[in-house]
Structure formats: C-alpha cells, structure tokens
Amino acid sequence: MINRFTILIVSLNIIFGSVPDASGVNGAVTSSNKFASDVGINILKDGGNAVDAAIAVGFALAVVHPGAGNIGGGGFMVIRLADGTKTTIDFRETAPQKASRDMFLDENGDIIEGKSWSTSWASGVPGSVAGFGLAHEEFGTLKWSQLIDSSIQLARDGYSLNYNDANSFNRYNDFLTKDSVTRTIFVRDEEFKTGDILVQRNLASTLERISRAGWEEFYTGKTADLIQKCMERTDGLISKNDLKNYIAVQRDPITFSYRDHIVYSMPPASSGGIALAGILNQLENIDLSSLPFHGADHIHYLTECQRRVYADRSTMLGDMDFIPVPISHLISQEYADNHWMSIDSIYATSSSEILPEEPPSYYESEETTHYSVVDKWGNAVSVTTTINGWFGSGITVDGAGFLLNNEMDDFSSKPGTPNAYGLVGAKANEIASGKRMLSSMTPTIVENPNGDLLLVVGSPGGSTIITTAMQVISNVIDFKMNIEDAVESPRYHHQWLPDVVYVEQFGYATETLDALKERGYKFALRSSIGEANCIMYDPNTKIIHASGDSRRGASAIAY
Ligand code: DON
Questions:
Q1: Are 266 and 288 members of one domain?
Q2: Do residues 92 and 229 share a domain?
Q3: Measured between alpha carbons, how far is 94 from 245 in angstroms, rounded to an integer?
Q4: If you placed Cys at 52, which of 48, 152, 168, 296 could pair as Cys (CB 3.0 to 4.6 Å)?
C-alpha cells in the first residue's frame, strides 16, 4: 500500500540515495546472519573492541551460517586500530604434509574430477581458530571465553532458520547426504522450513572445549583427535602434526593510495590486495566521475583494468612464504601505467592478446562470508572467512560437528586448467606441503586523505571478490555514493579467462550491453555477484553507516 511514509522514503531516496541499513555512533556490525551480527553488537555493548566483536562474530557464523562460516576453514582479517596500528592476520589453510604437486592428477596427468572438491583430500589444515586466537592475544580486550559463550548457546539451544538457511539446506540436500556424519546434522526426512530450529550439540561441545582450554585445543586437544579420527574414516591427509604445526601469521597490509585515499588490504596468500591495487592504480589515469555511471565507457575501462591484473595473477601470485612475490612492482604506479597504456579507448582487448607477466627468474628455486566491524573508539576490522565451496568438502568431523573446507581446490592443480572459479594458475600456486593456496579474499579498509576511517569493505564470491571490493570502493570515492548504494549497485566482473564479462542480470541497460558487444565484449549473466557487507564512517557527523548486502539477505546492525 502506498502511503505518505512510503512516498517520503522514496522521495528521500531520489534526493539523497538509499538509506543505509543501519546507522549509529557507537558501533556497527554487518555480517551474513542476524544472529551473528547480534552477537557482535552485544560484545561491543559489553565494552569489547572491534577485534573482540570480530572474533565473536566469527564463532557465531560457524554456528548460524554453516554453509560458509566456519571453524573448519580459514580466512583473513585486516585491522585498523584507533591508535594508528594497521595490520592483518593470515589464517589461511595450509596444504597437509602429505600433499604433493600432482595429488589431484591421474596417471595421464589429467585432473581427477571432484577430488579437490568433495573428498577429504580437498581439505587444507584449518586456520580459523588459530587466527581468532592470535587476534585475541594481540588485540582483544575481553576474556576469550566471553567471545564464544553466545555461540555455544546458539549451537546447544539451536537457532531458527531464516528463508536463505532453509533453502540452502534443501538445495544442497544431495551434497550433504553423501557424508555419513554430515547427514545426521544437516539432512532431514522433510524439507527444512523457515523457522525450523537447528540444534548442533557436537559443535556446542567443540566450542565449549575451545572456550575452556583456549584456541590451542583445536590443534592439540580432543578436537585434534576427532579431526584425526575423521581423516582415518575418510582416508584423508591431515595429520596430528599438521594440526600442531599450523600457525596463523600477522603480516603488514598491502598499502597504496587511490585518489589520495589510503587503502589497506590483504597480502599473499591472498591475491586480493595486490590485484585491488593493480586495478585501482590503473584507474588513477582517468576521471571516472566524468563518465556516466555504468555507461559503456565506464564498464569498458574497468573491465580492461581487471582483465590485465587477473592475467598477471595467474603467473605471479602464490604463498609468499614459499615463492618470492614482487609485491612492490605489482602495486607500483609504473606497473599499472604500463597496463593502462595498452588499453584502447573504445574496443575490448582480446584476452588472447594479453600475456601474463613472466615471473622473475629466481622463481626457479616453486563459500565464504565477509563481515565488517567498527567500534566507538574508531577501531575497524574487516574479515573474510571461508570453507571455499558452500558447505566446503561436505565432510563433517566425527563427533565435533563442523564441516571441513575444500580449499585445496584454490591451488593450481594443473597449470592452465581452471579451478572451480574458472581461475587458471601456474607454478607460483602449485601444491606443496605446508603451503597456503592462493586466495581472492579481499578484506580491506580505506581511509580518507586526512587519515580518518572511511570504509570497511569485503565480500565472498570466489574470483569475483576482488572486483566486488573494487567496485564498492570506486562507487564511494568516484561516484560519491553512500554505502547502501555502493553495495547495492549492480556489479560486473572480468577475470582475463574466460574472456567474458559476467554481469548481474537485470542490472544493466540493454542498449549499454549492445553497445559493448559492438566493441568486442561477450557477456554472461549471473543471478548475483558477491555479498559485500560493508561499513562507511562519516567523520563530519561521526555516524557509522552499515550495509548488509541484500543479495544474500545479510544483516547490518548499529547502535
Ligand atoms: O579464497 C578464495 O578465494 C575462495 N576460496 C573463496 C571462495 C568463496 O568466496 C565462495 N563464496 N561464495
């Protein structure tokens, strides 16, 4: 029914853009699930800082967002503290000791279908619990157990499923039925419905052990024993030593400027920060704001910048603890300018004409969820975490109640053969014991030119994560959008190979796409790209605006 209130809101939207999902001056959390965002906000209200809240949200998502939230996977955290500290925590999974370069190839050297996806060989050594532990030791202020209490309760007493939860269990019914342990938790005789309660007793006990004995319990305690048992049952590779030896690592962020704003993002083993810099640095060569938003020229230039950077991603990037990654070269303006000069002002460059950079000669020697938190002190945390595919490998740890990741698929199993996200890789990202597989996760924090916090950004979406983060940042900086519009605007994506622009259906004018086809572009429709749960801080009003991406029904809360 159209009433005066609706007319008022619509008019305000036309004049000012959309209204952010949540705004407040004390803190904000935006994540894939309302229960998890609530947990984070309550930690902030109890006096915790943004790092405390981010850890608590991470544990909560492991309970209420089992398709992607996890303690059986890994991820990345970018932290910007009010005291000036900028750092990142890398809790990416590692390849088990028994992993080897050709483990997913048959005797003819061909990929064995599904082996890096839905078997226990697909799992890397999980890093999430160590990552949360390291974040807490370095920057947390509340007691560790306080950060896990609510998640234990959500697992033990159960939580009610929203439409997306129920729908995803139903859609993945066959996948979830394959593993004998998974099926006892996530499969029912009747279809799941909105409002059904999901109880996860074994997960509650696991979280209780981690809460009582500390994060190390996961790697050396009963949970490690249960992972070992699961590996025996499923003929898997992860050993007790792999677990004991896992370490989360604190690393310096990839830091660069975009139109005088300072951007902090994730270094390898994520390609996110480097690729983001590579694209945005090219765009420094053009005043995007002078182009019609999502007109043919705008899409053309962004696509060409993306194409060039993804080509280099395929050869140059991998775990920098294993191979030398020429970071300063790849994030330099000179590198970007060279790429920019090869872009035609009208026509698409065919990807076959773009040769990825040759790695330096010293090479010779080798379903995800994003959430953002800002607290009242101005601390900001950007976290992307994943078990890779939705519900990971589909295998649940016996008696421990959590799914294992299928992150090994992010390695390049065979040079030049695409992985699940169509990404090709080479030597830099080949499998080796203890190595981290290359990621696209791009948790990022952006400051205004004067150093004030501006954005906390990130998204799931496999290879599309980088271009999603890039578009949200450009929408705000170049097109002066508020965070809601920046997140909800239609998105597109190009990754060099395949040579096609993925566009969200319904997002683009037919005339624009037709004009781009004339310039040599091919398009493929996607129902949606990413789930950018982002925060924007307005230093003038001191209001924190949070947006939960409506593409997957996320939840933003502020107070
Ligand atoms: O690390 C990566 O790049 C992938 N494993 C992320 C997977 C992902 O985003 C799935 N979610 N939609």
A1: yes
A2: yes
A3: 10
A4: 48
Tell me what the pLDDT averaged over the chain comes to: 95
Residue 486: count of CB within 10 angstroms of its CB: 25
pLDDT of 410-423, one tens digit each? 999 998 899 999 99
> 467 and 306 in contact (C-beta within 8 Å)?
yes
Catalytic annotation present for 87: no
d(CA 437, ligand 1 centre) in Å: 11
- Which residues on adjacent β-strands are paired with residue 457? 444
Q: What is the pLDDT of residues 367-421, one digit of tens each?
A: 799 999 999 999 999 999 999 999 999 999 999 999 999 999 999 999 889 999 9
Q: Domain of 272?
A: 4-22+251-292+320-353+440-558
Does residue 410 line the site of ligand 1, with CB under 6 A? yes
Q: Is the whole-model pTM more than 0.70?
A: yes
| Same domain? 112 vs 152 | yes
Number of domains in the chain: 2
pLDDT of residue 361: 52
pLDDT of residue 6: 42
Distance 440 CA to ligand 1 centre (A): 7
Which DSSP letter does residue 95 get? -
- 261 assigned to some structural domain: yes
pLDDT of 1 above 60: no
462 lines ligand 1 (CB under 6 A): yes
Residue 372 domain flag: yes
- The kind and range of the H/E element at 164 are helix 163-171
Asked whether residue 48 is domain-assigned, the answer is yes
Query: Are 41 and 16 found together in one domain?
Result: no
**Mean local confidence (pLDDT), 473-484:** 98
Please give the distance, rounded to the nearest whole angstrom, from the Cα atom of residue 117 to the centre of ligand 1.
Answer: 13
CB 424 within 8 A of CB 498: no
- Residue nearest (by alpha carbon) to ligand 1 atom 10: 367
**Mean pLDDT, range 227-249, rounded to an integer:** 98
Confidence of residue 363 (pLDDT cuts 50, 70, 90): very low
Q: Which of 94, 368, 369, 468 is catalytic?
A: 368
Q: In what order do the strands lie in the sheet with 501-504?
A: 492-493, 501-504, 523-526
For ligand 1, the distance from its centroid to the CA atom of residue 5, given in whole angstroms, is: 40
Q: How confident is the model at residue 358 (pLDDT cuts 50, 70, 90)?
A: confident
Percent of the chain whose predicted confidence (pLDDT) is above 70: 96
pLDDT of 9 > 90? The answer is no
- For ligand 1, say whether the CB of 437 is within 6 Å of any of its atoms: no
Any ligand 1 atom below 6 A from CB of 460: yes
Same domain (yes/no): 341, 381: no
Last residue of a domain, one of 377, 406, 429: 429
